[in-house]
Specification:
single chain, globular, 11 helices, Rossmann fold
């Protein structure tokens, strides 16, 4: 199964992505979790002990230059648009508690949406992950789905949009939903996060209309504390683990 997780910044998609990765592993699956957000935080949410070791691939200038044939720090020169990347998940992925993860990062500089060696490298990696890998792939995406081009969209089984009970979050969810539909993704659904009461659930269901809602993650002190300490949310928040298991069941409904 190949799953892309998206949503407005700050809604908790990284927390949910980490929880989902643990749940697949708990159910005996081989998992590769991918941080494809420029503001990379998935390693912390998984509880990786030394975050100083984690360098996003987009910042590995020598590797990008080697694989694309570009020169570090220069733009406008020619480079290959089909770099070799099939070996990178096995050589660069890190592991914690039987879970493997990779941090792709993103192109943060102005004009980051243009065709440059870094973005070309990231898109090639995602294409390989979606189309050629045989394990469960969970991708913590940024709000947009630019990395998921039409060639890779056919390989993504499920797009999950994480929302919180706020209008801007829900507007972003609808925009991501439309983008996913344009890419003809097979299944698009939502997960509500930071839920305080039944009113929050009702508001999200009402505003999302006919979009499938898999379930809800609570607003809980244990989740906030895990985030502050950069420790595993799944291991340190019983509330997150319990809610995640209920959502996990609906993935196969």
């Amino acid at each position: 199964m190949k799953i892309a997780v998206s949503g407005k910044g700050g809604v908790g998609k990284t927390t949910f992505s980490a929880t989902l990765a643990h749940l697949f592993k708990e159910n005996g699956k081989k998992v590769l979790a991918i941080d494809a957000d420029p503001d990379a935080n998935l390693a912390a949410a998984l509880g990786y002990p030394d975050l100083r070791e984690v360098t996003p691939i987009s910042e590995m200038k020598e590797l990008v230059a080697e694989r694309t044939g570009s020169k570090p720090g220069t733009y406008g020169s020619m480079f290959t648009i089909n770099p070799k990347v099939d070996d990178l998940p096995d050589t660069l992925a890190r592991e914690i508690d039987g879970l493997k993860f990779m941090t792709l990062g993103g192109v943060k500089k102005g004009g980051g949406g243009c065709i440059c060696p870094e973005s070309t490298m990231l898109k090639s990696i995602i294409m390989h992950l979606v189309l050629a890998r045989d394990e469960v792939i969970i991708m913590d995406m940024e709000a947009g789905l630019e990395h998921l081009g039409r060639a890779t969209s056919t390989g993504v089984d499920h797009l999950i949009v994480v929302v919180e009970p706020g209008q801007r979050s829900l507007e972003t969810a609808q925009a991501v939903r439309r983008m996913g539909a344009d890419l003809r993704l097979k299944r698009i659904s939502a997960v509500g996060n930071k839920i305080r009461n039944q009113g929050d659930e009702d508001f999200i269901r009402r505003e999302l209309g006919d979009l499938e809602v898999l379930g809800f993650m609570p607003f809980a002190d244990s989740i906030i504390e895990a985030d502050r300490k950069s420790i595993s949310v799944f291991k340190n928040s019983p509330e997150a683990a319990e809610a995640g298991r209920e959502i996990f069941k609906r993935l196969y409904a």
